[in-house]
């Protein structure tokens, strides 16, 4: 007996120590209170081991002290563990202090027992020839037992309460502990009343510690988990089917039963029904996921099917499950979102980004087809918006969008809105019928209520002969074509050709160099003599030339229109006027009496105060204003006539000569001429050469000459190329001439040499 119990206690001590060691590794919230309980359980077991094993009165008595005092600590640890396990806290601070005080008193009174012998005494009894020391309890021991029992019973009551108040599944974790506690308590009670020499209840305590360790830190309530998982699976929105290792359906949740149309609890047909429902459903054991659409159009349903194998601890296949998730709603929302992102909210056409994507795809998929990329633009859309309001503007856009839809839908075309008032179309070249398109665009009228407006739509067409370039570049090219019919009302379609690209590149090339060219004096004034009726050179017209370091000699026709378009002409002109002033200043110093006519572009007026700049230059170079003559064309007067008139008056009042250039070559308004403060009229002889009826043209020139004298304006014939012309014009009374017949424009040095050689500035 003695040896058996000694071994049992020893094993328990070791087991508690081992559990304590493993409890240290746990990070669970309850771990500290479990560790404390395990630690405190060891001394009482040691106490009992001593009592059982010693056979000596004194040592047995020491064992009793370790046992009893140790039990005070155990009972405290038990209470703390109970609170932690049941997730409770002390009901009040006072109670906590009271319990601690009572336990302290108990420990104290037990420690005083050697002096007062009020708690217990041990007596020897002989069992099987061995001396055991049995306890004879007194009042102190009774107090100790009351304390210990009271706390023990409190813990038991808490566990009973928890066991019966929790759900059936959860109560398991409480009932196990409660059972062990009751078991230990009963044995303990039995020991007390039986007064047996060995406290068997200690085995219960040891066992209790180990069970607490297991249930608190390692126990996973499998039954609870099973029930919960089953509940979750049954309640899930997605359909779930479970299969055994032979792939036979053994269970399906409610959505699964409904989806497959099964009779509840009869899963035999599940396989067949699933195969009918989902064509991609395959009988595979491996894990797989697939999406499946069933039905079509608006009734289409989207599903995600997932089949997963289930394996046991040893990685053996024990079955599988299939989940079917209906994602129709998300899919529809996604489609809607995509639609919104890809379509213009006003016209419902593709947005630019999506159009580019679609065009790229179409071109890639059909490398053998020749395509047209069309850039459609509403001319002066801003004016439509300003005059009729944005609502009507939107209506115009909708009309154009409809027109594009109606015209191109049948032609395998892809189209969309590029931005504001521009649209893009891609269609096979052979499907584009320019005649039909021209016809429908020639009378494009948008009507809304009382407002109606004829809308000019221009199409720039790029034939995709380089399908690998970016879509945006294709549209740039189509747009380039469009610019070539900018001001035309009768033509609506313009085709891109490589010359246009060359032109744009050329424009960019020279525009980027102009600033530097002026600085380096690559731009030079050439002078073309102006002579009187005797052929004497009286002055010259300054005409710009660009002596380009790599492109050679550039005539104004190659760059003046470009700079007139982008406004850089004002830089050229200011520079030319300055050059003219420099020359005049030098001539004045050298005593040469000649004038220089400078050209003024209509665009100059947008970028500077022309009169102010010219006056300042004349002042800066101290030039008598009469020597600097100003050539303007009639187009200058087309815009803002009053301001321009006063500007001419200003110049004239300041002594400058004002000349009308190219009279007769463009739009001539005789009516305007009578009010214009001009000194000289340059009659363009191109008028003569262009005419079919020379006699009539001559009559007109004659009359213009006469009329200009009548208005007090001197006439000058420019572009005189032949002697006949010269004689004829002289006879008509013209006294000033300019033209190749006399001399071509030449550099300033050449001009000066030419003047010297022609005996005192006389030409011909
Ligand atoms: P424009 O002002 O009417 O200048 C006369 C143009 O006629 C010059 O051409 C001149 O070379 C050309 N010409 C002169 N006599 C004859 C002739 O007998 N027959 C023919 N067929 N042509 C003749 P150019 O120098 O090529 O200049 C062309 C135009 O460029 C000028 O016409 C003027 O409008 C513009 N331009 C030239 N230089 C400047 C400038 O510095 N500033 C501005 N804004 N425009 C300029
Ligand atoms: Mg001129
Ligand atoms: Mg001219």
Short précis:
It is built from 28 helices and 24 strands. With 764 residues, it is α/β, with parallel strands linked by helices.
Descriptive overview:
With 764 residues, the chain is an alpha/beta fold. It has 4 domains: 2-220, Rhodopsin 7-helix transmembrane proteins (Rhopdopsin 7-helix transmembrane proteins), CATH 1.20.1070.10; 233-332, Beta-Lactamase; 343-496, 2-Layer Sandwich (Alpha-Beta Plaits), CATH 3.30.70; 508-757, TIM Barrel (Alpha-Beta Barrel), CATH 3.20.20. It contains 28 helices and 24 strands. An 8-stranded mixed β-barrel has the order 15-16-18-19-20-21-22-23, surrounded by 4 helices. Strands 4-3-7-6-5 form a 5-stranded antiparallel sheet, sandwiched between helices. The protein has a 5-stranded mixed sheet with strand order 9-10-8-13-14, with helices on both faces. The chain is elongated. The relative contact order is 0.04. The model has no long low-confidence stretch (mean pLDDT 89). The chain binds ligand C2E and magnesium ion (2 copies). Residues 528, 543-544, 555-557, 560, 569, 572-573, 576, 599, 601, 661-662, 719-721, 738-740, 745 line the site of ligand C2E.
